[in-house]
Structures are given as structure tokens and as C-alpha cells.
Design brief:
The chain has seven helices and four strands. By secondary structure, it is mostly helical. Helix 2 (10-73) runs antiparallel to helix 7 (169-268).
């Protein structure tokens, strides 16, 4: 520290400047900590959201896989309904619902049934044997008997065949209805799973958005608090520097007044001397061997008072 530092306040001004530098460095470092913490927190929050989203999607995939297997379990029942449906279709052909082609298909199917063909063959053989025994095998009566038997047999067997076909209607309805109900229930379950998945993903997005906003808001508050602390430090340092400058001005003014006082004491006290202590003292009287005024060898003008008192300022 220089000899005049105490008078000029230089040390205080330097200390204030160092305080500002330290405050700026602290603000920068703390801001870095805040930003790093925010980045890490957002990454952790995002990681949590990603993990939760993956778990939701995996759960949905597993659940829909189970539903697919459940639907596959109804395929045998569906196939059984299709088999029963063949009988219903044939009954509709026989009733003429599907037009002439359907009726011809039904007639061919009926006449090809083992029961009808067997009974027809057996009945005709019995008629032939009886007519042959009576010598009337080639008679017109034999032909009429054969026609009457065939027509009656066809009528009876056809009705039985139709009843048998229509008997598969209820099993067909039960099989197809059971399969349809089960698959429909699975579809509703799948729709519910999809809805639940969408809701959970939306909740995760909302959770992440709220968490991120909270972190950002917290970081803003911390930055503002950090800036406010730096501002306070700056204000204090500027106040200290201003106080130092004010004190220095007072010191310099006091010093100037003291120096001015010393000059007055020297001029009015003769060679009696002066001091910093204050008060008056007696100066040296005039020397009778020296002139009262004149010029010395260097050419400087001098003047000795004839005596008197000198004084100084403390």
C-alpha cells in the first residue's frame, strides 16, 4: 500500500472491484451448476417417460397377443358352424330358395342318399319277385305298382331328409353364435385395451410436460436468485467504492487545509519555527548583524521580522 493510499481510498476501491469480479465469477459458476442440474433433471425425467411408455406399449402388445390367441380358439367352433351351414344351405336348395339350380342340386343329393336308394332297390325287387311268381312281371300292373311304390317312398324319404337337414339349423346357430359372441367380446376387450393405452400415454405426456415445466420454472427462479445476489454484491461494492471516494475527498480537503495553515504559520512567525502540533511559539528575534531585508548571494529576496511569535495548525 502506498503512503497516500489511506488518503485516496485506493485500497477500498480495489477491494470493491475485486468483490465485483468475485460476484461475477460466482454468478457464472452458479448459473453453470443450475443449467447442468436442469439438463440432468430433464434427461432423467425423459428417461422415466421413455421407460414408462415402453412398459405401456409392451403390456398392450402382450395383451393383444393373448386376445389373438383367444380368437384363434374360436376357429374350431366357427368351422363347426360352417359344417352345419352346409345342411341349412341344402335345405334352402330343396325349398327352392336358391332357384332351379339349387333344386336340382338338392334332388341329386337326395336320390344319392344311401337310405333312399337302398329302400327303393329293396322295394322294387320285392314287387318284381311277387309279380314274377304270379307270371305278371311284364304286365302293366307291375309297372304301376313300381311307380306307386317309388313315389310313396320318395315322398316319405324326402320329408325325412328335409327334417334331418333342418335339424342342423339350431346347432349351426349355436356354433356360429358362440364364436361370434366370443370374438366380439375379445374385440371389445381389445378396444378397451387400446383406449386404456392411449389414456396412459396421454397421462405420461402430461406428467412429463408438467415435470419439465416445473423444472424450467425452478431453474428460472434459481437463476433470478443468483442474479439478485450478484446485483446485491455489486450494489454493496459500488457503495463501498463511493464511500471510499467520499472519504478520500474529505481527507484531501483536510490535508489541503492543514498545508495551507502551515504556510500561514511560516509566513507570520518569522524564523521562530512551526510545527504540526498546533499552538503558538516564540520565534527567533531579528539579528542586529544582518540587515532586515535584502538579497542573498543566490539573488533570492529575504526579509526577517524583528521578532514575534509563530504558530502552526494541528
Amino acid at each position: 500500500m502506498g503512503i497516500f493510499d489511506a488518503l485516496t481510498g485506493k485500497s477500498q476501491q480495489e477491494a470493491a472491484n475485486m468483490a465485483r469480479i468475485a460476484a461475477a465469477n460466482a454468478e457464472k459458476k452458479n448459473t453453470g451448476f443450475i443449467d447442468t442440474g436442469l439438463t440432468n433433471s430433464l434427461a432423467a425425467l425423459k428417461g422415466g417417460q421413455t421407460g414408462a411408455t415402453g412398459a405401456v406399449n409392451q403390456g398392450y402388445t402382450d395383451a393383444t397377443g393373448y386376445l389373438t390367441n383367444a380368437n384363434a380358439a374360436f376357429q374350431p367352433l366357427t368351422a363347426l358352424g360352417d359344417k352345419y351351414g352346409g345342411a341349412s344351405t341344402m335345405a334352402l336348395n330343396a325349398l327352392g330358395v336358391n332357384g332351379q339350380p339349387g333344386m336340382e342340386t338338392a334332388r341329386a343329393a337326395f336320390t344319392a342318399t344311401p337310405g333312399y336308394q337302398f329302400n327303393l332297390d329293396q322295394g322294387l325287387e320285392a314287387i318284381n319277385r311277387r309279380r314274377a311268381a304270379g307270371g305278371m312281371l311284364n304286365s302293366g300292373n307291375a309297372d304301376r305298382d313300381a311307380q306307386t311304390f317309388g313315389a310313396g317312398l320318395a315322398s316319405n324319404e324326402y320329408n325325412n331328409w328335409m327334417n334331418n337337414l333342418l335339424g342342423f339349423t339350431n346347432p349351426e346357430l349355436a356354433a356360429t353364435g358362440g364364436a361370434a359372441t366370443g370374438i366380439a367380446n375379445n374385440d371389445r376387450t381389445g378396444a378397451g385395451l387400446a383406449t386404456a393405452r392411449g389414456g396412459m400415454l396421454a397421462d405420461l405426456e402430461k406428467w412429463y410436460g408438467g415435470g419439465a415445466a416445473g423444472l424450467e420454472q425452478g431453474a428460472v427462479g434459481q437463476r433470478m436468485g443468483n442474479t439478485n445476489r450478484t446485483t446485491d454484491a455489486y450494489i454493496n461494492s459500488f457503495n463501498r467504492e463511493a464511500d471510499a471516494k467520499t472519504a478520500a475527498s474529505g481527507n484531501m480537503l483536510k490535508l489541503g487545509m492543514n498545508l495551507a495553515g502551515l504556510g500561514v504559520g511560516a509566513a507570520t512567525g518569522g524564523l521562530g519555527g512551526f510545527g504540526m502540533g498546533g499552538g503558538s511559539f516564540t520565534g527567533v528575534g531579528g539579528n542586529p548583524n544582518m540587515p532586515m531585508a535584502g538579497y542573498d548571494q543566490s539573488g533570492a529576496y529575504y526579509n526577517f521580522a524583528p521578532g514575534g511569535s509563530g504558530f502552526g495548525f494541528g
